[in-house]
Amino acid sequence: MLQQYDRRPFLDVLAEFIQSCPSQEDIKKFSAKYPDRWAGAIRQLATVGGFTEKRELNVNVHVTEMSDSQLEDALTKFMIENSLNLPAVEVSATKPLINNDADEAQT
Asked: Could you report the per-residue pLDDT of 95-104, keeping only the tens digit for each?
């Protein structure tokens, strides 16, 4: 239901806030005076910038019964349905996911 609301009226207000951005010196003074608020501001900016806490999603797929292309299609569909933008990861059945070469070199 919230997706039906128009966000355009807030763009002018957002533009005004962005144009009123504090200077670097103001930010330094703010962080020295209110380190807790500065940390909160960093978290908020990081969140809107795309950095979020780990999301846990429960997935139950019978991968042993799927071909590689079916698995890739299922992953793509899942990512789209859950609005995920994850980096592409190449998984190979012939290569181990964990490289133990470094451990062997130390021993």
From this structure: 544 454 544 4
Q: Are 53 and 46 in contact (CB under 8 A)?
A: no
Cα distance from N-terminal residue to C-terminal residue, the chain: 59
Q: What is the distance between the alpha carbons of residues 21 and 95, in angstroms, rounded to a whole number? A: 49
Alpha-carbon gap, residue 97 to 99, rounded angstroms: 7
Contact 66, 74 (CB under 8 A): yes
SS3 string of 14-72? HHHHHHCCCCHHHHHHHHHHCHHHHHHHHHHHHHHCCCCCCCCCCCCCCHHHCCHHHHH
Question: What token pair was written down for 23?
Answer: 């200077």
Rg (alpha carbons) of the chain, rounded to whole number:
23
Average pLDDT over residues 10-17: 86
Give the pair of three-digit tokens for residue 67: 């071909």
Kindly tell me if the per-residue pLDDT of 53 is higher than 90: no
